[in-house]
Amino acid sequence: MLLSLSTTHRPATDLGFLLHKHPERAQTFTLPFGTAHVLYPEASEARCTAVLLLDIDPVGLTRRGGRSPFALAEYVNDRPYVASSLMSVALVTVFKTAMEGKVPELAQTPIPLTAELPAVPARGGEELVRKLFEPLGYDVTVRDIGSRRHVGLTLVATTRLSELLRHLYVLLPVLDDEKHYWVDTAEIEKLMRRGEGWLPEHPERALITRRYLKHEWRLVNPALAALGELEPADDRTEIALERPVSLKDQRLGMVQAVLKASGARSVIDLGCGAGALLERLLKDGYTDLAGADVSARALSIAERRLKSDSVKLLHSPLTYRDKRFAQYDAAALVEVIEHFDPPRLRAVEENVFGNAQPKTVVVTTPNAEYNHLWPSLEGFRHHDHRFEWTRAEFAAWAAHVTTTYDGYRARFVPVGPEDPEAGPPTQMAVFER
Question: 216-254: per-residue pLDDT in tens?
């Protein structure tokens, strides 16, 4: 993961004074998640380039986060390679004085600057990248690097170095729509301080605030109020917050009802996460339950939440044949299938319908046609979704399943308030044999 900063201001080597890092000496800094290196591949009077190179330790980062060492997905990810919130932490650690812009006097002077990032997450694509940076006066170049989720990014402007660093500090995690660390009220102060002088006037300030604060509404609301976006006691906020909770409750309640009506005595929740559905099924009196998930951390949370000998928690990626799945009358995949790329989804199908073969399989997934009814939504509903299907696409997939695996038939159940044209926000298929 790297960031290069270049200038043609003369003498260009003044960049070293602005960054407080001498061009003739490479420097190394220890960070909580790895090591940062600052070096200058070119340093002449005509042009100077400083590079911030991050060497991320994903194993150490995972262990420090308290996650299990056998959860492969915690290690195999894009964090070591793309500029995200880890880069923001490095910027404020390594270039803190430069970011403050107090000294030297040149720090108050706009100079020609180019920032280049070979790979950044872009949850929202090129359009969002431009919406974030162009209003700040940057000439933006977005490059296709062969990844649906990432782009190469070059920013060119005549501006103060401190402003460029503060823009990157705030907007890199906004582009990613994720942070690698827990956020609390201190993040509001960071956002206001680093956004001073530009965020209140930015046309996408509401989006920036939501994403920077990880959509934690207990933090977002006060921040938006400080920016004049809403009144602190605005009732509309409460209504907006209740809607996603209500939909989640409706979804789990509907799955719960279908499983009860099926007559199943034993149920396995595939992709159980923190155990929300299992908790409901326990209250229904089930004594033979299981939950399976690829995340050991999620299973640990589920174990603490459920505290029941009636529930077996299984560590499984769902894509490999697991004989333990075959002993249950019914299986549920609640908002799970959209997290798999098509080839891996085929493996999940074979594992569930071909090998385990429960009598009832309940599958829910987002209805892509409904997304446009949420004006604040950009792209998919979750950054880890590989797809979101229309009702026709979901029906075609269900037909493929019933054709491939003899004995199953499928029926469809809407979940949530139906729109006359878009349909329900969640679509459900109940497979029975």
Answer: 877 888 888 777 665 444 444 433 433 444 577 888 888
Q: How confident is the model over 314-349, as pLDDT tens digits?
A: 998 898 888 999 999 999 999 999 999 888 999 999
Q: Over 80: is that where the pLDDT of 75 sits?
A: no
CATH architecture of the domain with residue range 242-432: 3-Layer(aba) Sandwich (3.40)
Answer with the residue of higher pLDDT: 48 or 261: 48
Domain boundaries, given as residue ranges, for the chain: 2-181, 184-233, 242-432
CATH architecture for segment(s) 2-181? 2-Layer Sandwich (3.30)
Which backbone phi and psi does 96 adopt, to 5 degrees? -60, -45
Q: What is the pLDDT of residue 241?
A: 39
